[in-house]
């Protein structure tokens, strides 16, 4: 949904950021966050793993997401949920807020 001054109310990045090389992930999240209005939410769904495979080359563990979100200028990061995954141990969702 577009709100306010043409900025987005939220972004959901589900199983997508793990295609971005690790060294670029914070930059990509920062660039995407620029489209969000203050108070908006950035929701991520990712594999909670440190090492990938050919299908999930650059997974973002929840611990790594906390750092990426902070580096991208997001705040109040919290774990929304986690479920087992037969591929890389578990998959989680987390929510961060644009200050």
Task: Walk me through this protein's architecture.
The structure is a single chain. With 99 residues, the protein is an alpha+beta fold. It has one domain: Rossmann fold, CATH 3.40.50. 19% of the residues lie in helices and 42% in strands. It has helices at 25-33, 62-71, and strands at residues 2-3, 7-14, 36-47, 75-85, 89-97. Strand 1 (2-3) and strand 2 form a beta hairpin. Helix 1 crosses helix 2. It starts with a strand and ends with a strand.
Topology:
Blueprint: E1 2-3, E2 7-14, H1 25-33, E3 36-47, H2 62-71, E4 75-85, E5 89-97
Parallel strand pairs: 2-3
Antiparallel strand pairs: 1-2, 3-5, 4-5
Produce a short descriptive summary:
The protein has 99 residues and is of the alpha+beta class. The chain is 19% helix and 42% strand. It has helices at residues 25-33, 62-71; strands spanning 2-3, 7-14, 36-47, 75-85, 89-97.
Low-confidence stretches: none
Question: What is the share of helical residues?
Answer: 10-25%
By DSSP (H or I, 4+ residues per run), the number of helices equals: 2
The number of distinct β-strands equals 5
Which characteristics define this entry?
99 residues; alpha+beta; Rossmann fold; five-stranded mixed beta sheet; 19% helix; 42% strand
């Amino acid at each position: 949904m577009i709100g306010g001054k043409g900025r987005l109310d939220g972004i959901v990045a589900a199983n997508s950021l793990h295609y971005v090389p690790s060294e670029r992930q914070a930059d990509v999240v920062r660039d995407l966050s620029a489209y969000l209005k203050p108070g908006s939410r950035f929701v991520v769904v990712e594999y909670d793993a440190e090492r990938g495979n050919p299908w999930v080359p650059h997974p973002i563990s929840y611990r790594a997401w906390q750092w990426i979100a902070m580096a991208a200028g997001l705040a109040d990061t919290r774990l929304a949920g986690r479920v087992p995954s037969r591929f890389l141990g578990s998959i989680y969702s987390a929510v961060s807020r644009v200050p």
